[in-house]
Design goal:
The chain is α/β, with parallel strands linked by helices and 203 residues long. The protein contains eight helices and five strands, in the order βααβαβαααβαβα. α3 links the parallel β2 and β3.
Length: 203
């Protein structure tokens, strides 16, 4: 599925599916585990990743990413480096709430979230701009380490990473499937089939 090589030597992978992804509920930084589909996606991701000869594996510290990384690590024979800068956006007051409820209460703000508006901030939580800063700093450390490298993370983290690399905000860059493997290159990422499952809204 993935044949082009990332010029940076860095790839990003979205964790496997969770029940919250399937239900349309904000999980933010909650310790939500993979569901059965997500565990299958992690195995499939490990199989696709094996073709890239990764020398390093990094991961978000959140449970759904850690569970995905453990499966990939076993397949690649690598020890993950866990970095909290790759965690999903802090969803603040929206954490653990269904998308539909939030949309009904604050439709304009929810629309900004869905559109990936660069000015968006979760009420009581983190802004997209704040997330972009920490993700960019983490990527600098990844690129100073062994390459090629794979980072297991989250939908909005992937969008932030691609935005950092592009030098401008990419509002829809988070819309990649669970279990997807994405090169850290905005041009390649815009054109490729990443593999993984059906795309679910990052949360």
């Amino acid at each position: 599925i993935l044949t082009a090589r990332s010029p940076s030597g860095v790839y990003l992978a979205r964790h496997g599916q969770t029940a919250y992804n399937l239900e349309g509920r904000f999980q933010g930084q909650l310790p939500v585990p993979l569901d059965d589909t997500g565990r299958t996606q992690a195995v499939e991701l490990a199989e696709r990743a094996a073709a890239h000869g990764f020398a390093a594996l990094w991961s978000s510290t959140l449970l759904r990413a850690r569970e995905t990384a453990e499966v990939v690590a076993a397949g690649l024979g690598l020890e993950p480096t866990y970095d909290e800068r790759f965690v999903e956006t802090n969803a603040g007051n929206w954490t653990d709430r269904p998308f539909a409820d939030v949309q009904a209460e604050t439709p304009d703000l929810f629309a900004k979230f869905v559109a990936g508006d660069p000015t968006f901030a979760f009420p009581g939580g983190e802004s997209f701009a704040e997330q972009e800063v920490r993700v960019g700093a983490a990527l600098d450390d990844v690129e100073r380490g062994e390459l090629p490298a794979l980072v297991i993370c989250h939908g909005m983290v992937i969008r932030a990473a691609l935005s950092v690399r592009a030098g401008h905000w990419l509002p829809h860059g988070q819309r990649v499937p669970n279990g997807a493997l994405v090169p850290l290159d905005p041009a390649l990422a815009a054109e490729m089939n990443f593999g993984g499952g059906e795309a679910t809204q990052a949360s």
